[in-house]
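Why do we bother with a discrete structure alphabet at all? Because it lets us treat a fold like text: something you can write down, compare, and reason about line by line. To make this less abstract, here is a complete entry for Preprotein translocase. Read it the way you would read a sentence in a foreign language you are learning: slowly, and without expecting to understand everything at once.
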Amino acid sequence: MFTDVGGLKLLTLAVLAIIVFGPDKLPKLIQDTMGFIRKVRSFADNAKEDIRSELGPEFKDFEFEDLHPKTFVRKQLMGDGEDPLGLKGMKDTIDIRSVLDDKPAAPVNGRTGGVSFDKAAPAAASTGAPLQPGERPPFDPDAT
């Protein structure tokens, strides 16, 4: 929010403050503002400590920064240095070079990493044959 404030803007604000408040009242105004900021910070720190003490010892590692949505999602999905989603294992099974060269992937851990996109044989329903009682209809992967 305040990252785009440069030297010229700060100088303009200082000159404007001197003009509006005057050189005799400006030091008192700065002192009052700094005292207010200190009180707000101490109030926030006391509130955090009260919440931590009320939560109990099982939440001793609780950080309020973890409640930020980006941090919360990152921590819940990726864990603390772990791989709960198995992304590293998936990365090891995918062979990008074979995909780019249009060659079949080499087997990894006894499985091939490639996926076949060939069309399956026509289903029985497309031939018009009626289903027997209790028979499940054929699955069409293109329809889902």
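What the structure line is telling us, in plain words: The longest helix spans residues 26-55. The chain has a mean pLDDT of 76.
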